[in-house]
Amino acid sequence: MAKTEVILTHNIVGLGAESDHIKVAAGYARNYLIPQGLAVPLTGVNKRRLESLKQRRAEREAHELNTMSELGKSISKLLCLISIKTGEDGKMFGTVTSGMIADQLKTQFDITLDKKKINLEAPIRVLGDHDVELRLHADVNSTLKVRVVSTNPPPQAADVAAGEAARKDDQKTEKRGRRPEVDGGDRKGRPVKS
Questions:
Q1: Does domain 76-150 match CATH 3.40.50.300?
Q2: Which entry of 6, 126, 139, 143 is 20 to 30 Å from 22 by CA?
Q3: What are phi and psi of 23, to 5 degrees?
Q4: How would you write the pLDDT of the chain (194 residues) with one tens digit per residue?
Q5: For the chain, which residues make up each domain, given as ranges?
Q6: What fold, for 3-62?
């Protein structure tokens, strides 16, 4: 296949960043990259243009680094509250994922963050406080405190004690095995004919 050399003018995921000098298929460059303005052919004039592209790229990367470092500092002070359904014993139905955390950041604090930047080694499966690592930039990592709470109210201690006392009373009165004998009857409770 014929290859051609181009200079990228924009970031293209999987291909490169602006001001990168790359080789691509001739048809891809001719039919997509150049008409869309995403790349320019490698010529003498465009080589001189490469310096301005490199300067623009450096400015953009510095701006991203500053923005993400400020975001990381502000996020580290926040507490994200996530409510989830639980059973009577406090066990969660489902798990808390990075997508749920990203959604809650958007609704609670109006912070739009890609779920790929939230680093969970495994989904959160228990209630309580958790520290979640955020990889905001190649050079910026931060920690977000996440509190997972139940949407169901926890059973009150008095209700739990009363429920257990009632169960113990039921166990004491219950006899297993033989049925109680009825006066004047057989074992099955039927009257005995004399």
A1: no
A2: 139
A3: -110, 130
A4: 789 999 998 889 899 988 888 999 999 999 999 999 999 998 888 888 788 888 888 898 899 999 999 999 999 999 999 999 988 888 888 899 999 999 999 999 999 999 999 999 899 999 999 999 999 888 899 999 999 998 887 655 445 555 566 565 555 555 566 655 555 556 666 666 65
A5: 3-62, 76-150
A6: Ribosomal Protein L9; domain 1 (3.40.5)
